[in-house]
Structures are given as C-alpha cells and as structure tokens.
Amino acid sequence: MFTRGAFIKPLVAVPLLAAMALPGCGSEAEPEAVQSVFSTDPLMARALNDPLMVDPDLAYRNEANAAVTVRYDHALPPLVATDELANQAREAARVELLNDGPIPELPFAFDGDAPGNFADLTDAGALLLAAGGPDPCAAALISGLRWAADMPGPSSIMPHGLVQQAAGVSDAKCTARVVRYVTPVDIGDVMQYHFTLADRARLRPIIYETPESSMIGDGRTEQLVVHVRPGPGGMSAVDLIYWTK
C-alpha cells in the first residue's frame, strides 16, 4: 500500500532534475537535432524539400497536409495532339505568316532522298554535323532551352510548338541553332510554315519526302534544315537546324 509520504520525495526531486537539465539545452544542440531528422527520417527530409507546385493540375504533388503519403513518383501528363490544339496552332501560324504577305503554295517534293536521317540522333552537335553544318560550330554548341527564345529570322519555331531540346552558339566566329520541338499540327502544316519562312528569306528551299519529310534552304549567307516525323501522342516531331556561313 502506497503512503502519502512516498509521493512527496519524487515530486521534490523533479524541479532539481529539470534545473540540472537546462544548462545542457541551447542553440549548439539544434544543428545536431536538425541533421538527425534528415539522416534518420527520409520522409521528413523529402517533405521539406519537395518542390512547391503552382499548377492546379499538379498540385497534388505537394502533400504537406496529407495524413498519409501514398505515392511520390507522379508522372507528368503525356503530350497528346487534339483537334482543338491543332486548330489553335494552325490558325496562329496562318495569322503570323499572313502578316508578312500571301502564303506561297507548298511545291512538289524533290525526286530523291534528302541527305541524312536525324531520327536516331540525340546529340545537338551530331545533328548539326548530319545536316552539313561546320565542325567548329558543332563543337561550340551550348545546350539550353534559352536558345529556343532567340531564333534567327527564318528559323523561327512554329507557334504553340513545345521545345524538347535546344542548343546554340552566337559569337564572332559562328552562329548556329539546333532545336527539337513537337507540335499538334500535321506534317504538311509544319512544312508549309517553315517553307514560307525559308522562301521569304531567299534560301531557295527544296522539299523532300524520303527518308522522311524534310526541307533544305541554302542561302548565300545562311542555311536552314528542317526534318519532320510522326511524334508521340499524335504530335509532329520537328528537328530545326540553322547556321550562318
């Protein structure tokens, strides 16, 4: 049977133990505590470092208020061409071209194969060399999507095009661009757009159908090569290679 006196002594000792523990608490111990959280609790570390999402369609990625995290590897939605997207891109391209005059008819394809097939190439330098570009430009290419926002006149990307890869160089010795993008419009619309720009720039463009749909524009001071093939989700995949001579 417990007596009243048995409870008094432990209660008196509690303040003393707390006072002894206080000197050990301070800011110097906090970094160790924070490090221990990251090293022993990967879920906590991942939650604190998870990117903040602002797209409503992807907001579920940030599960800060979730009671249970079910999965982490959410896949991005696939790129799928729809009639609505194709019509929007086609109309935007048509309006852009009409601002500078009538749109010329797309000529018949040249009877022969275009030089090079880019479908299996992934390196920007290899693409430039396969198109016939100069070796120094290929070696000087710098990868980065920023180059897609600075395309010289006849090498413009079709409106609503989604850039997948870009590289370029602009200096006193060389100017070149290598861009891969996809668009919801069909191959004929892509060829019409780039042919019009090349024709207006006096590049004397030639159309090919084999081994894949392509165009080569060879001017006095610049050259443009465009290859188009069926892409994923009904999109058209475009290789755009430009350089100055």
How would you describe this protein?
The model is unreliable at 1-22 and 56-60 (pLDDT under 50). The protein has seven helices and seven strands. Helix 4 packs parallel to helix 7. A hairpin with a 4-residue loop joins strand 2 and strand 3 (175-183). Strands 1-2-3-7-6-5-4 form a seven-stranded antiparallel β-sheet, sandwiched between helices. It has helices spanning 4-21, 30-40, 42-49, 83-98, 124-130, 135-140, 187-200, and strands at residues 142-143, 162-170, 175-183, 206-208, 213-218, 222-230, 236-244. With 245 residues, the protein is α+β, with helices and mostly antiparallel strands. It has two domains: 4-61, no CATH class; 83-244, no CATH class.
Features:
single chain; alpha+beta; seven-stranded antiparallel beta sheet; 7 helices; disordered N terminus; signal; Lipoprotein
Q: Report, as a whole number of angstroms, the end-to-end distance.
A: 102 Å
Largest sheet data: 7 strands, antiparallel
Helix count, per DSSP? 7
What string gives the helices and strands in order? HHHHHHEEEHEEEE
State the share of residues found in helices, binned by percent.
Answer: 25-40%
Read across the widest sheet, the strand sequence of neighbours is 1-2-3-7-6-5-4
Structural class: alpha+beta
Tell me the total number of β-strands.
7
Strand content: 15-25%
Mean pLDDT: 81
Unreliable runs, pLDDT <50, ≥5 residues? Answer: 1-22, 56-60
- How many separate domains? 2
Shape: globular
Oligomeric category: single chain
Rg measurement, Å? 31 Å
Protein name: Lipoprotein
Keywords: Signal
